[in-house]
Amino acid sequence: MPYPIPEPSPTPPDWPHCGHGTTPEDTVGCRGIHVPGHTACLAHLADADRDGYLDGLTPGADIDHRGVSFTEPLLDALLDALLDPATGHPRLGEARFDSATFQGDTRFVRATFQGHARFGSAAFQGLAWFDSATFQGLAQFESASFQGYAHFDSASFHGYAGFTSAIFHDLAWFDSASFQGTTKFASATFEHLAQFSSATFQDAFFVRAAFHGTGQFGSATFEGHASFGWANFQGAAEFRSAAFEGDAGFEEATFERLVTLGPLACAGRFVLSEATFSGPANLSFAASHVECRRTRWSSTAEIRVRYATVDLAHAIFEYPLTIAAEQEPFVLADGQVIGEASLARLPDAAVRIMSLRGVDAAHLVLADVDLSSCLLTGTVHLDQIRLEGACSFDTAPSGTHRRGWRPVRFTRRRALAEEHHWRARQPAAVPGWKPAMPDIGHAGPAQLAPVYRALRKAFEDGKNEPGAADFYYGEMEMRRHDRIQTTRTERGLLHGYWMLSGYGLRASRALGWLAAATLVTIVLLMGFGLPQESPKQEATGTVPPGGGKITFEIDKADPHDPTGQRFTGERFEKALNVTLNSVVFRSADQDLTTAGTYIEMASRTAEPVLLGLAVLAIRNRVKR
């Protein structure tokens, strides 16, 4: 397909130029630089003078043909004059082809550029062949235009390689190319396939590059920093089996179609912050850190990760998105295992989610990830999040600690990272609560209670009642400590609920209080509630004088308060019987003193409540 050739600039170049072919419309004429010792460029030099110039060239000579318009035979003649007899391929020293035009096919196959190779603003109107070429100095192709295929297969760039603002109208083929210095394709345009498979880069910059066709980077190796910030992938983006030994940056990149990032390995940070995925995305990588802050997902996506800490703060999910921890190393279709040697320094392959702040979690699925350090305040629709597999949270520091003179004991339960941060900030914080980093903000009980409530509902919707119990406990704890939205009366009730049974979740606490209440009741009954002796019934009646029917009145004496020895085995047995019957709302038919009656009434009120709390706690822990 022919592409329009840009009109020449009306401004004359800053070198002595040929000027051949001047017209009223083009007052500059030919822009080619003078051949040394002549007043014309190589293209418009007389045949005899051109032959003499070419005959004087030797392999490795410096040449300067800026602005020259090369036909295919003219370029072949120039390169033939620079052939190295030892290799049979051209060998050039300093080569300047800035703003040159190559009208036919350009063949620099296996050419060696010993000095700097400058092709800035050059126009390649046919095929450009640089296969296996070696650039030992700078390779500058800034603003160059490739109208046909651009072949740089197995080319070797030892120094800086600059393709900034270059335009590739057809295939750009850099398969197995080696970029040993800094490489810049910033603002370059690839209108068809851009093939960089198995290429090797040092520091690579594709900032603001536009890929209209497929961007193929399969098995490419980036030994230094790789930046694709603000790049636009209008076609498919393929990075299968790529290796990033430094950081990989895709900040504000746009992916408009299918994206396959991986499986790949990244030893540094893999940054997708503020990137936009308009089409389906399949991301699989082993990386030390994955940053997706304010990333927008406008289609379904699956992210499978190993080793990484993942930051999803303020990301936008318009469709279901799954983030799952991969348990085994990634394997390609051909059975090849993705190497992870660069990540061996990390303690394990667990995936840790660092933040979900500002995220609408209605479409989010997390599987087998570690949420122990995750910041969750500000997450929207957290109750609709799906947690699959073995998703873990941090835990409260268990055991007994001292807060001043007072012992404090925490039971083991799931706890949010932000509760750790809040408790660690308290003046009398006990050891074990983890402080926050200084730049993540502070959330208090008023903000944490709704988070615990939402997670409790998410676990309940997932039929995980025992898991939901921990978040219910956390919610009640935050309400008890909340001095903003919880009234003093409500805090008092919650404090009592916590002390008696751990919010209906600590059976041992309720049973302990029940045992204590039972013991107190028994002691009080033995001391004050049981009479000295059980009152005996008395029957009295009067015999009529003339005989006849006798009427008896049966009465019972009032119990007498105990005196003397009160704590005997017999009295203990009676007190125990009364107390145990009180627990289950039954009367023991035991005569009691007035004080004993009130003791029994109190026992029949308090102890069944404590028993009920214990049963409730056991049920909440074992219910499925």
Tell me about this structure.
Helices cover 23% and strands 24% of the residues. The protein is an alpha/beta fold. It has a 33-stranded mixed beta sheet that branches. Strands 2-6-10-14-18-22-26-30-34-36-38-41 form a 12-stranded parallel beta sheet. A two-stranded antiparallel sheet has the order 46-49. Strand 47 and strand 48 form a beta hairpin. Helix 5 (465-481) crosses helix 6 and helix 8 crosses helix 9 (594-622). The longest helix is centred in the C-terminal third of the chain and has 29 residues, at 594-622. The chain is rod-shaped and about 175 Å long.
Please summarize what this structure is.
This protein is 23% helix and 24% strand. It is built from nine helices and 51 strands.
Poorly predicted regions are none
Number of strands: 51
Radius of gyration: 43 Å
Shape: rod-shaped
Query: End-to-end span in angstroms?
Result: 67 Å
User: Mean pLDDT, rounded to whole units?
Assistant: 85
Q: Beta-sheet strand percentage?
A: 15-25%
Helix-and-strand structural type: alpha/beta
> What is the number of helical segments per DSSP (H or I, 4+ residues)?
9
What does the main sheet amount to? 33 strands, mixed
Helix content: 10-25%
Primary descriptors:
33-stranded mixed β-sheet, single chain, 51 strands, alpha/beta, twelve-stranded parallel β-sheet, 624 residues
SSE arrangement:
Blueprint: H1 47-55, E1 63-64, E2 69-70, H2 72-81, E3 83-84, E4 89-92, E5 95-96, E6 101-102, E7 106-107, E8 112-113, E9 117-118, E10 123-124, E11 128-129, E12 134-135, E13 139-140, E14 145-146, E15 150-151, E16 156-157, E17 161-162, E18 167-168, E19 172-173, E20 178-179, E21 183-184, E22 189-190, E23 194-195, E24 200-201, E25 204-205, E26 210-211, E27 215-216, E28 221-222, E29 226-227, E30 232-233, E31 237-238, E32 243-244, E33 248-249, E34 254-255, E35 259-271, E36 276-277, E37 281-291, E38 296-297, E39 301-306, E40 309-311, E41 316-317, E42 321-325, E43 352-355, E44 364-367, E45 386-388, E46 394-395, E47 399-403, E48 406-410, E49 414-415, H3 417-425, H4 445-461, H5 465-481, H6 488-501, H7 507-529, E50 537-542, E51 551-556, H8 569-583, H9 594-622
Parallel strand pairs: 1-5, 2-6, 4-8, 5-9, 6-10, 7-11, 8-12, 9-13, 10-14, 11-15, 12-16, 13-17, 14-18, 15-19, 16-20, 17-21, 18-22, 19-23, 20-24, 21-25, 22-26, 23-27, 24-28, 25-29, 26-30, 27-31, 28-32, 29-33, 30-34, 31-35, 32-35, 33-35, 34-36, 35-37, 36-38, 37-39, 37-40, 38-41, 39-42, 40-43, ...
Antiparallel strand pairs: 3-4, 46-49, 47-48, 50-51
Helix pairs in contact: 4-5, 5-6, 7-8, 7-9, 8-9
